Amino acid sequence: MTIVGYFVLSVYTLALFYITVYCVMQFSLLYHYKKKDKDLSVNKTAGNKTKEHKKVGSLAMVDSTFADSDFDNHEQDTGEGDSDLPFVTVQLPIFNEKYVIERLIDAVVDFDYPKSRYEIHILDDSTDETVDIVKKSVAYYQKKGYQIQQIIRKDRKGYKAGALKDAMPFAKGEFIAIFDADFLPRREFLRETIPYFEDQKVGVVQTRWEHINEDYSLITRLQALQLNVHFTVEQRGRMAGNYLLQFNGTAGVWRRETIEDAGGWEADTLTEDLDLSYRAQLKGWRIHFLEHVGSPAELPAEMNSLKSQQFRWMKGGAETAKKMLPTVWRSSLSFYQKMQASTHLLASTIFVFVFVAGVFSVPLLFFLSDLIEMGFDKDFFAYYMIGLLSITAIYYVANVQATHQEEAFGRSVLKFVFLFPLFLALSMGLSLHNTIAVIQGFLGKKSPFVRTPKFNIKNITDSFSKNQYINRKISWTTIIEGLLAVYFFAAVIGAIYVQNTTFMFYHLLLAIGFGGIFFYTLKHLSIK
């Protein structure tokens, strides 16, 4: 039994070590994020003494205390010179989006940008009544003088990446703005992003995702908590540290030349955005992230949609890591840039180690007494608290201290204290589902691009109960998630029985996580 005990301890420790290293690497991004804030504060103080206005061609941007680049002070000019603005193609890749497509089209035609200087292409792969809805909207706005058209392919080859690739010959724009169907871009989007392309090395400008329906449910609140980290500490931290970052598939603008120079859109991964981002940056192009420019979007409101989105992101991340890591390590990037890029590309693997650590922690609980008698010091595990402290600090800064937060400080802190443990539980509960996705990605198992259903959910009064896009099938993964909830709850009871509470709180979070995933999956499957 001693050999088995040491084997269990070794596997658990290895998983814990991987998780800790990942968290510490993330913490380094927090360092760069906070350092950039400090630098901006110093620059703004100096700027107040001698205010300078920097115009970009005929277009300038509004002065913002949140600016994070050389364009720190601007004035918007909507008057003369608009005819000299760069021509932009706005691409809207969609598939069966009858509940939200009209609101997206309405938002894009309302851009504060001359009709003559941008065109709208709806890349419509739909197989339902969405096609007719788009057709009517296109005809309506064409009569009003907008350059808008519906592009329909013969088949859905390559899914979103294929649609973007096939639509490029029709695009006249020097710049390509892309929005998924769940977004509602603001009127000033183009005027706030296009000026950054005056820097000829900038190939992409990415904006921060905001959340239309954050307060709809506990599920949406927890998603917002996580996404806020990516769209503050991670993206801006990578930019500030001169590391590779990413275009997030939507709510951003590409320089057309960058897409072509990097080899164009490729459909061999489920995360074509991450793939092209890396290929472009390895060609020498830069991605500029704008934390101060928000683009509202709808979060998945039901568990099966969230799981579908997570599966695509995790599997696509693994596929892109397998594809791009050799190229990254052969590149001329510095060693630490390569390390950060590897951590970024391998981010989805964290769920594999979270799952392994959770499963092996239960037998370890019952071997622990024997191992301690043989000289093992259980205080050894305290060293790995650095990982939990790191990730707690990151989430606190992104959700409480970030400059775009509008809630009162006290309310933000209380909300964070309540939500963060539940977020940890949710992440643990998704670990089996996401582990399967990661393994499939690395093994090269192909699967279709399953888009996340959008329900036009904006507030608590809205409902997705009669939405035809809801998946009603129970998977074997869901059954195992229910069994794992029982497994970890039994571990809590077992800890009380053997009078060893070392892992009790950890196992309680795992039980809540898997139990919550199981409960909400079945609940949302049964809604009619």
Features:
Spore Coat Polysaccharide Biosynthesis Protein SpsA, Chain A; globular; alpha/beta; 54% helix; 528 residues; 7 strands
What does this structure look like?
This protein is an alpha/beta fold and 528 residues long. It has helices at residues 2-49, 101-109, 130-143, 159-167, 189-193, 218-240, 256-261, 272-282, 303-330, 335-345, 350-373, 385-401, 409-429, 431-443, 476-498, 504-526; strands spanning 88-94, 118-124, 148-152, 175-178, 202-211, 252-255, 286-297. The chain has a domain at 85-302: Spore Coat Polysaccharide Biosynthesis Protein SpsA, Chain A (Alpha-Beta Complex). It is 54% helix and 9% strand. β2 (118-124), α3 and β3 (148-152) form a beta-alpha-beta unit. The N and C termini lie far apart (51 Å).
Query: Which descriptor suits the 3D outline?
Result: globular
Q: Regions with pLDDT < 50 over 5+ consecutive residues?
A: 44-80
**CATH homolog superfamily of the domain at 85-302:** Spore Coat Polysaccharide Biosynthesis Protein SpsA, Chain A
Class of secondary structure makeup: alpha/beta
Give Rg in angstroms.
24 Å
Spatial strand arrangement across the major sheet: 3-2-1-4-6-5-7
Number of strands: 7
Q: Report how far the terminal alpha carbons are from each other.
A: 51 Å
Number of helices: 16
Content of β-strand: 5-15%
- What portion of residues is helical? 40-55%
Average predicted local confidence, pLDDT: 89
Q: Would you identify the CATH architecture of the domain at 85-302?
A: Alpha-Beta Complex
Main sheet record = 7 strands, mixed
The SSE string, one letter per element, is HEHEHEHEHEHEHHEHHHHHHHH
Highest-level CATH class of the domain at 85-302: Alpha Beta
CATH third-level topology of the domain at 85-302: Spore Coat Polysaccharide Biosynthesis Protein SpsA, Chain A
